[in-house]
Structure formats: C-alpha cells, structure tokens
Amino acid sequence: MYLLIAVCCVLSVVFTSFVKTPPGGKARAGAPMLKDIKSGLAYVIHSRMVLVLLVMGLATSLLAMPFRFLMPVFVVDVYNTGPEAMGLLVTIMGLGSLVGSLFIATIGKWHRGSLLLGGSLLSGIALMMIALIPHYFAAAAIMVLLGLGDAGRRTLNQAMIMEEVEDEYRGRVMSVFMMNFGLMPLGVLPAGLLAEAMGGQFAIGVLAAILILFTIVVWTTQKQLRNHM
C-alpha cells in the first residue's frame, strides 16, 4: 500500500513537470514574502465567497476527519473485530470516495454550491448513523455514504476555490486552504479526549451533530453559495 502511494506521488510530480506556463503569464520575482502573505490574507478576508469556502473546508475537516483516527476504537471496542475488519471499512470508504469523485467530475457545473453543502450534510448524517448504530455490517454500508459525502465536499470545495480566486492570488489562497490538514489535530485532540472520557460513539455523535448544525446554518445564511452554479 505504501509503495503504491509512493509511486502515485512520484507520478504526480512527473506529470506536473509537463505543465507549461500559460502564454502571457507574469513571473513575480523578488516580491517580499511578508508582503505577499499580508496581501493574500487581505484578499481572503475581503472576498466573501472565498472566505466562506475556506471556512467550510476547515470546519468540515475538523469535524469529519477525526473519525478516521478513532476508527480503531470502533473496530475493537464497538464492533469487537480485528485489523481485517478495519481494512474492509477503509476499503469501502475509499470506493465510496472514488464513486463520489467520478460523479462530481461528470456533472460539470451543475448546482455545485448545493452539492457542496449536500456533501457536508451527508457526511454529518453518516457519522451520526455510525454513532447510533453499533453494528459492523451496518457500518460497512454507512462507509459508502461517508465516502460519497467526503469526496463531494472536498472535491467541490477545492475546485470552487480555484475558480473563484484571481490568478494572482491563487497560490496564496490555496496555501491557506492546505492549512486544513495542518490544523486537523485541533479536531482530533478534543475528539480523542471526549472518546476517552465518554466513549467513541458519544464523541463521533457530538462531532456529527455539530457538523449537521454548521451545514444547516451555512445553507440558510449563505444564499450566494447555495445558488452557486
């Protein structure tokens, strides 16, 4: 598995090296780094849609991703199974993500704002079902929904940010977006402490409830995102 991941990483570097600079592109050499960072953050703050998308990406990562780290707790303490069972759950989730990504790629520009919010809501509902149904085979089926929701929100979130941002600021805004992965422990740590104190099901149930509530609030307050094509 790790060998396959390493090969994919090498291939991504190789293929990216063939990407040519668009004609007429301006090279920015010698610009002060701190000034670039300041202007990038100012751009994010003053671009409402970009800011909403970044907040959505961060919030959904902090609330949905901790389950991956707590999955061994469910496998051992809730489902009373072993490593093979966890491997199957991860595989099914991966298949759901693949199907979700292919679906997003085929629909093009069709109600992407609503689909982004729908993917976030689906992730929350799937996590809530995992928290409420302590059965392994039910969890295996729910993994499909979780994979679909996660793939939809991640793919659409990144694509919509790339389209909304001006060329000059795209690199800096995507750097802010990639901080989601670095800030993920901020969600994993309290989830782990809550799981230690109250159990894994309770911890995931709390995260799922917050994710569902957050998505509903964004859905009702951000009309521009909801109607984004």
Helix-residue proportion: over 70%
CATH-defined architecture: Up-down Bundle
CATH superfamily: MFS general substrate transporter like domains
Shape: globular
- Quickly count the domains: 1
Q: Which regions are unreliable across 5 or more consecutive residues at pLDDT < 50?
A: none
CATH class category: Mainly Alpha
Order of secondary-structure elements:
HHHHHHHHHHH
Tally of helical runs:
11
CATH topology: Growth Hormone, Chain: A
> What's the overall average pLDDT, rounded?
79
The helix/strand class is: mainly alpha
Taken as a percent bin, the fraction of beta residues is under 5%
Query: Compute the gyration radius: what is it?
Result: 19 Å
Largest sheet: none
Distance, first to last CA: 37 Å
Number of strands: 0
Question: What keywords describe this structure?
Answer:
229 residues; mainly alpha; Growth Hormone, Chain: A; 82% helix; 0% strand
Can you lay out the helices and strands and say which pair or pack?
Elements: H1 2-16, H2 33-46, H3 48-64, H4 66-78, H5 83-107, H6 112-132, H7 136-164, H8 170-182, H9 185-198, H10 200-221, H11 223-226
